[in-house]
Structure formats: C-alpha cells, structure tokens
Specification:
- The chain is mainly α.
- The protein has one domain: Phosphate transport system protein phou homolog 2, domain 2 (Methane Monooxygenase Hydroxylase, Chain G, domain 1).
- Helix content is 74%, strand content 0%.
- Helix 2 packs antiparallel against helix 5, helix 3 (70-99) packs antiparallel against helix 4 and helix 6 (174-196) runs antiparallel to helix 7 (203-235).
- The longest helix is centred in the first third of the chain and has 34 residues, at 31-64.
- The relative contact order is 0.12.
Length: 243
C-alpha cells in the first residue's frame, strides 16, 4: 500500500464528493433569495397601486372638466394594472407552492394576494369616474353641488393614498384613523345623494351622481383594505373598521 502522502489528491477520498454547486442543485433556494422574490411580489403590487394613486388627481380634474378624452388614458392604465395584478398572482402562487412560507412571511404573502382584487378594482373605479362624463357634465352642476363632488373625490383619493402608504410602511395602527376618515367619506356621499335630489328635472344626472358617489366611496374602501392588511401582516390580527 502506498504511503498516504504519495497518493494523488485527485483520486483521494475528497474527490468522490460532487462539487458543492452540483450537490445543491434542486435544493430549496437560500433564504435571501426567497426574501428577494417576496419583495419582488410586493414591489409589483405596490407599483400597480402607485400607478392608480398617482393618476387620481388627474382623474378628478378630468371629471370636473368633463374631459371625455381622458377615459381612453385611464382605461389603458386600468389594463396595465390588470396585467400587473395577474403577474403578482402568478409570482405569489409560485412562492406558496415551492417555498411554503410561514408566520410573518406567510401573512405578508396572503395579504398581497388578497390586495390584488383591491388594486384591480381601484383602477376600474378610476376609469368609471372619468366615464361618468358620458352621462353628466359636471360643469353644468350648481356651484355648491360641484364643490361637494370635488370634496368627495379629494377625500376619497386621500384615504386610498393613505392606505397604500400604511401598507408600504407596515403601519399596524393606521387602520383606525383611516376607518374614521372612511366614515367621513361615507357621510359626504350621503350628503351628495341628498343634494342631488335638487336635480329632479334631470333624472339621468341624478343617477350619474349616485353612481359617481358609489365609485368614490368604494375607492376609499379599498384604501382602508390596504391598512387592514398592513395590520394583519404585522400582527396577525384582522381588524374590522366602520360602523
């Protein structure tokens, strides 16, 4: 038998081990890789929601100016948001299937997949607001009624943006304040409907105002959902707001 020091290292015991990279082929991804992919899902959904939030001031201006050409732009935005949401779902379900996240990671991913609906509906609601000009010319409304519409739109957009901000900051406490703000939006919508009765001679305008109020109220509701899911992702608690 040859002395150990005379053996060729290439055929020694260590040579029988496969290279490290090959030995890890097919193994679950490293934790850092998983976190990067979870962050990518979050970024994709947040980016879609930010597109809606950034468009809302222009949506309100276009409605008040009866800019019907804006409808095509908002529909294009809604289509883009729809595509992004499908990508979020695909990426999220892959993470669920292959990585089996637990605890905080699982809560975060579940919240993201649930928020897909809220982001998608928010984009559709923005498109509906602009499309309302096909049945209602806001420039012809009485000044005080037009002011109410503008205030409702502004407050609704504010709740949506604040909810999105709560999600981005993982603010588990913001939901309570946003719940109160959402109630204010509900009251503004009720007031708008009561005032719309002054337009008895124009039933189409009354109907359009009713639908518009509903669109804006729902937009605020979706903002509250962001804050609710921020609380869930951080604490595991499901908080209901409103009365």
């Amino acid at each position: 038998m040859e002395p150990l020091e005379d053996q060729d290292p290439a055929v020694g015991p260590e040579a029988e081990l496969p290279p490290l990279r090959t030995a890890l082929d097919g193994a679950p991804p490293l934790r850092s890789d998983y976190q990067e992919r979870l962050d990518a899902v979050d970024d994709e959904l947040t980016g879609a929601a930010l597109r809606v939030a950034d468009a809302l001031p222009g949506v309100v201006r276009s409605f008040l100016a009866a800019d019907r050409e804006a409808a095509a732009r908002i529909r294009a935005l809604a289509a883009d948001v729809h595509d992004r949401c499908r990508l979020v779902e695909e990426m999220g379900f892959v993470l669920l299937a292959l990585d089996a996240p637990v605890a905080g990671d699982l809560r975060r991913l579940v919240a993201l997949l649930r928020l897909v609906h809220d982001v998608e509906r928010s984009a559709s609601l923005a498109a509906h607001v602009v499309a309302s000009t096909a049945h209602l010319d806001p420039r012809l409304l009485p000044a005080d009624l037009r002011t109410q519409v503008e205030e409702l739109a502004r407050r609704s957009a504010g709740v949506f943006c604040a909810g999105l901000d709560a999600w981005r900051r993982r603010d588990a406490l913001a939901v309570h304040e946003l719940g109160r703000d959402d109630l204010d939006v509900d009251r503004l919508r009720t007031r708008l409907l009561l005032e719309a009765r002054r337009l008895e001679g124009d039933p189409e305008a009354v109907l359009a105002l009713g639908l518009l109020g509903r669109y804006l109220e729902r937009l605020a509701d979706h903002g509250v959902r962001f804050a609710q899911h921020a609380t869930f992702a951080v604490t595991g608690e499901r908080v209901e707001v409103g009365a």
